[in-house]
């Protein structure tokens, strides 16, 4: 299938510190089909339903190690992974009746992808993840690892709480799930990927994911890992902007590292939204549900706190999660930093000159909302 194309390719508007915030690009807002009815979509992505968002500025890339270091150097902030775990935050993620661990077991650290030495049953993620004492944003794989020479990589091993702390310092905020997906699509309506419908147009990799044609079967890690400058070999993040930007000028909206967004995660949230619409009128700037619900995470209470992450990471692959798609979504413990989760922020700074006002957005929403199903793009 050929790549999906917008009716008119968006104009990339980049902030320069005078006309818009430095390092951010303008996402014009509008009406789009959120979620997916594709055969590739998970149940929590369905059904596709019309949503409208207002224009906003978004970080061109993930927040990088260099940017996060500037925040820490200024504020002396201590991340979640650098603090002794709090039993109250662990308890709500544990099955009822779980005993409190001994004090010596509550050691600062974080979850690290360690891989396996042979193919395993992919239903048990604990085989390739480990809690590693001493792992944090400066040592993402634990003691002995480093981010030296990786200033332009996404910061990882940051919790939702850490992302909020950085956002307050930067005078920005986390995007809503609707804003994130609208931005990730880059002006393409219901395309499979952030760049279109072809996985590798002209044979070119488009995101840092686990490409089994180069890396082999997930999650097997060879004794001597294959590393390349592009996707299809690296076990970990790569420099932001390694791949082409999407239609709005945003890089790495999918792949490289998952991204925290503001919303609580409910597996049935899109179904709830679609039912609430009734007349198929686009939802206006949805801010997400009021609580969490995830019945699919084995060993965790379904109502345990979960925040949405979007975009997939260097571990995503066709055999396991397929989350390098704009509609893919998952929930994560907001106090659980991991070696494949980062974030980017948005700003409500004034819109660029010449951008449509909110009345125009509302008129466009009304026009597109009527009979939306008849115009929906067929999915593979």
Automatic annotation (TrEMBL):
- Region listing for Disordered, in residue ranges: 274-309, 327-380
Give the SUPFAM superfamilies listed for this entry: C-type lectin-like
InterPro entries referenced in this protein's UniProt entry, alphabetically:
CTDL_fold (IPR016187), Sulfatase_Mod_Factor_Kinase (IPR051043), SUMF_dom (IPR005532), SUMF_sf (IPR042095)
Q: Which domain of life is it from?
A: Bacteria
Taking every annotated instance into account, which residue ranges of this chain make up the domain Sulfatase-modifying factor enzyme-like?
22-346
Protein name in the entry: Formylglycine-generating enzyme family protein
């Amino acid at each position: 299938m050929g790549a999906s194309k917008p009716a008119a390719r968006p104009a990339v508007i980049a902030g320069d510190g005078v006309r818009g915030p430095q390092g951010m690009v303008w996402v014009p807002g509008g009406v789009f089909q959120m979620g997916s009815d594709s055969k590739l979509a998970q149940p929590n992505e369905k059904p596709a339903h019309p949503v409208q968002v207002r224009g906003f500025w978004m970080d061109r890339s993930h927040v990088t190690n260099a940017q996060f270091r500037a925040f820490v150097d200024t504020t002396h902030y201590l991340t979640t992974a650098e603090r002794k775990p709090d039993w109250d935050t662990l308890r709500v993620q544990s099955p009822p009746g779980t005993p409190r661990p001994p004090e010596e077991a509550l050691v600062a650290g974080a979850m690290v992808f360690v891989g396996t030495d042979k193919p395993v049953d992919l239903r048990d993620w604990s085989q390739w993840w480990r809690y590693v004492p001493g792992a944090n944003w400066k040592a993402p794989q634990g003691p002995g690892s480093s981010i030296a020479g990786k200033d332009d990589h996404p910061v990882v091993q940051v919790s939702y709480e850490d992302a909020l702390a950085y956002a307050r310092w930067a005078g920005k905020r986390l995007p809503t799930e609707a804003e994130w997906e609208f931005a990730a699509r880059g002006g393409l309506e219901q395309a499979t990927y952030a760049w279109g419908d072809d996985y590798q147009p002209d044979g070119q990799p488009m995101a840092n994911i686990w490409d089994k044609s180069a890396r082999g079967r997930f999650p097997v890690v060879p004794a001597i890992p294959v590393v390349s400058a592009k996707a299809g070999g690296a076990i970990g993040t790569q420099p932001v902007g390694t791949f082409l930007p999407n239609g709005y000028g945003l890089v790495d909206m999918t792949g490289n590292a998952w991204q925290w967004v503001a919303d609580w995660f409910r597996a049935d949230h899109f179904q709830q939204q679609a039912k609430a619409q009734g007349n198929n009128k686009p939802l206006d700037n949805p801010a997400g549900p009021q609580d969490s619900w995830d019945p699919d995470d084995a060993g965790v209470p379904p109502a345990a706190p979960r925040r949405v992450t979007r975009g997939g990471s260097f571990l995503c692959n066709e055999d396991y999660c397929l989350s390098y798609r704009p509609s893919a979504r998952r929930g994560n413990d907001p106090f659980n930093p991991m070696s494949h989760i980062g974030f980017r922020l948005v700003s409500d700074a004034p819109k660029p000159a010449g951008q449509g006002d909110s009345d125009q957005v509302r008129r466009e929403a009304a026009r597109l909302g009527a009979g939306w199903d008849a115009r929906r793009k067929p999915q593979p």
